[in-house]
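ligand=magnesium ion
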Amino acid sequence: MKNQFFQTDTIVALATSRGRGAISIVRVSGSDALAIASKLTKKSTFTPRHATLSQLFDRNNEIIDEALVLYFNAPKSFTGEDIVEFQLHGGDAVAMVAIDEILNLGARVAHPGEFTKRAFLNNKLDLTKAEAIAKLIDAKSKESAKLLARQLKGELKKFVDAQRDELVRILANSEVMIDYADEDLPDELLKNLEDSLKKLSNELLKTKQLSENRDGFFSGYKVAIVGKPNVGKSSLLNSLLAYERAIVSEIEGTTRDTIEEYIVLGEHTIKIVDTAGIRESEDRIEKIGIEYSKRMIEDSDIIIALFDNSREFDKNDEEILSIIKKEKSQKPLIVVMNKTDLENRFNEALLEEEVVKISCKESVLALKNALLKILDKMHEGSEQILISKRQIDIVSRTIESINNSFAPLRRGELEIFSFYINEAIGNISSISRPYEHSQMLDEMFSNFCLGK
Ligand SMILES: Nc1nc2c(ncn2[C@@H]2O[C@H](COP(=O)(O)OP(=O)(O)OP(=O)(O)O)[C@@H](O)[C@H]2O)c(=O)[nH]1
Ligand SMILES: [Mg+2]
């Protein structure tokens, strides 16, 4: 799988994010990278892995910038090709001029993820690492960043390889026994194989279950604040954000749309969503907002159900209660009593739930602590998880192949048994390096951001 199967033209992209900044990095990879760097800098040589301060010139011989130039020679680079990186001053303006000159010298703009794709095709990394890189770019919590860093070091690959080796061992045993097919197979041997397989399949199943619905672990869990109008949902969003983001008023139905904002809580970054108060309404716009609120209850990872201590329990509260009770088995729920600074008129016992008491006018610390406890719990057991749908699908297929192998094993039909174990081996191996790539790879790498 060396270079000859795909293009080795030279690609260029901005590797840092766009906007204002102290430096921008422009990355060039491919067989002309060094030649382009020489023309741009008028320097004939660069020492690999050394930083060289150099002026860059445009096609009219005018200076673009003074840049730090880093050369990584093939194959000892991220992509496995010659790479030159230019560290330029400031934000995109200078970088765009430099990219324009590099394009003029024969490079082309890289597709999203193309650097990583080349690294994969040149055997510089396997797919588990490539996927970890893609996720790391958007990681929203320290925990998820740490896990991805471990996967970058090859931890998931090691886990998968161990499972595959065990399957290969089982297959080898089966192949040996096929030679004894004419004689009666000792029951104990078959039983041992079945036990080993069951253990393996359970381990895969556990990993798969831990990995499902984990999007929030990487991209930030979504926490919806819901309740009837005027209970203080927008006030709570503002308190958590520590600034007046949403309009707050004593008029019921103030918030019409959902409002989403990120906040950092302990080591977690979460997305807090303020919603329109749920009630019976004839107002066309308000009704749409209420539909959004109900959808948000389904879409969120955690629900904060807010009630108002200063008013009596009414039919709107009752509706909220019935909606959230339905969701309770699906996701964590925090039942919160707001406005505890005001005289109590709400019969808390009717909620039949543990209640966290706050006042947006005084303190919401109790709620922050309850949220933190849930978030910490949601991060438990994430030592070894699959990070993409692709990986989860592969493990599902592997488990399926293993499950299909039990019946023939029990019947002593070892050829059929071997067939399924072979299939399981093929499946699990494709986590790090699939057999047939092109379409799947194009799809996968196109989800990367530009410059990676
Ligand atoms: N005394 C007291 N008043 C509060 C508290 N929290 C909110 N309020 C007041 O309650 C009223 C409603 O607050 P909002 O935050 O707009 O309520 P909401 O739930 O977003 O209402 P809708 O957007 O209409 O659904 C405002 O007048 C707030 O100032 C609190 O803890 N104590
Ligand atoms: Mg509101």
